[in-house]
């Protein structure tokens, strides 16, 4: 049992949800045209076939789609995170900011609107959606400047709001999100292929659902802002838009039953569940008994980590065992340190292990399948017996690092960071736990 086993399991999970393995089951040429999932089309059915790829996996999704359909495509546009572009894509690529939008994000928003404007019923739009697009493709409310948007969404990120809550606000500060791009392209035919990076694979939340009906309201957005104490702190142009929506001067986002969605089709290409199943297969190959954690990765990170440690502390371990969990936690940030939710999870789990007099140290890997964990260079972090020995050797204490939300510096000092670089996929997070014996069982 070693951290290398955990890394192998994690890499196998990420590989299983790469677009190159997932998309060909949904997009393929035929002798007389092409298939998009179960719908067959002839190229003569459409005047133009356009491809819009948005998100952290946009480059890989675009490259695979280009290879699958090639000359059938009229043109395309790709928007991805800075550092995630790939060679070989014949269309413009915009790299933009995440998790907080930057000027490139706003430029990307304008480019997307221009790219989609003028579509009609004789056109086909293939959309390739992955997580991160909510930030990567942005627009500014009337009279707002970029700094206004950055201030609000930095506040939301620090608050501990979950992704549904954050995207509820994003949708109501935008003319693109929450189904509004479907309105822009109507009556064109749209096929949206999605890598899910949200709990429950909620299509209205992934990338803020630009082509999916939204049942949220301006009142819901205001409730989120009040819940986290951000309503009164909002920059005036953003507050004015929310208030205009509350007063009915701006219509809510389009919902179910609106005819603009009549020719929009959604296809879930890869999910966290698929990654977990691949992780289980790899763990079996390496000789582990596999258990799925009864605890979902959701809610406040520290509590979730403590719950999972409590769970594994009660397991009867008589053979090498791998426990797998998937999902996405949140972190309420009170400190000034550096880290991400996966690094914070690993540090919180280590802290919980220290509270129960652990004798047999497990391997715990917590990683983002996109290769990104917060505003850091790491995908997550790894805890094992060697790291604990180093921690004691250098006299480090988990508590001060947790209090300052400084998990990156803790793990960087102990060679515990999980560094993968961009993976070109994005299906939330995975926790891989390897155990040889019960945590508190002594050989003495």
UniProtKB/TrEMBL annotation:
Domain MOFRL: 322-429
GO molecular function: glycerate kinase activity
Coiled coil region boundaries: none
PANTHER family per record: GLYCERATE KINASE
GO CC, alphabetical: cytoplasm
Protein's name in the database: Glycerate kinase
Domain MOFRL-associated as annotated: residue spans: 7-241
Organism annotation: Flavihumibacter solisilvae
């Amino acid at each position: 049992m070693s951290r290398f086993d955990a890394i192998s399991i994690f890499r196998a999970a990420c590989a299983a949800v790469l677009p190159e393995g997932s998309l060909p089951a949904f997009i393929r040429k035929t002798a007389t045209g092409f298939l998009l999932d179960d719908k067959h089309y002839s190229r003569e059915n459409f005047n133009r076939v356009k491809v819009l790829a948005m998100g952290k996996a946009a480059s890989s999704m675009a490259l695979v789609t280009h290879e699958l359909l090639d000359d059938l495509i009229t043109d395309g546009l790709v928007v991805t995170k800075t550092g995630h572009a790939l060679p070989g894509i014949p269309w413009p690529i915009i790299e933009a900011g995440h998790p907080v939008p930057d000027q490139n994000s706003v430029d990307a928003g304008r480019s997307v609107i221009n790219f989609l404007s003028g579509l009609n019923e004789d056109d086909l739009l293939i959309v390739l959606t992955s997580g991160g697009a909510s930030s990567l493709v942005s627009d500014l409310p009337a009279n707002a400047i970029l700094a206004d948007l950055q201030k609000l969404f930095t506040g939301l990120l620090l608050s501990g709001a979950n992704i549904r809550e954050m995207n509820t606000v994003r949708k109501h500060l935008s003319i693109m999100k929450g189904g509004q791009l479907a309105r822009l392209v109507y009556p064109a035919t749209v096929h949206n292929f999605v890598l899910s990076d949200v709990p429950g694979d909620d299509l209205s939340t992934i990338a803020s659902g630009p082509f999916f009906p939204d049942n949220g309201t301006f009142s819901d957005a205001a409730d989120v802002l009040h819940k986290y104490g951000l309503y009164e702190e909002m920059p005036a142009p953003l507050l004015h838009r929310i208030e205009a929506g509350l007063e009915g001067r701006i219509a809510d986002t389009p919902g179910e039953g609106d005819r603009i969605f009549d020719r929009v089709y959604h296809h879930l290409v890869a999910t966290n569940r698929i990654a977990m199943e691949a992780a289980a297969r790899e763990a079996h190959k390496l000789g582990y008994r596999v258990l799925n954690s009864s605890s979902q990765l959701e809610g406040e990170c520290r509590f979730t980590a403590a719950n999972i440690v409590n769970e594994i502390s009660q397991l009867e371990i008589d053979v090498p065992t791998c426990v797998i969990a998937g999902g996405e936690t949140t972190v309420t940030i009170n400190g000034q340190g550096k880290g991400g939710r996966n690094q914070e999870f690993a540090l919180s789990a280590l802290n919980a292990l220290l509270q129960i007099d652990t004798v047999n140290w497990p391997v715990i890997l917590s990683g983002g399948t996109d290769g990104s964990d917060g505003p850091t260079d790491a995908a997550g972090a790894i805890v094992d017996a060697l790291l604990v020995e180093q921690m004691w050797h250098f006299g480090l204490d988990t508590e001060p690092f947790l209090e300052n939300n400084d998990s990156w510096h803790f793990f960087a000092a102990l060679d515990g960071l999980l560094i993968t670089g961009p993976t070109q996929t994005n299906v939330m997070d995975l926790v891989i736990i390897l155990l040889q014996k019960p945590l508190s069982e002594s050989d003495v």
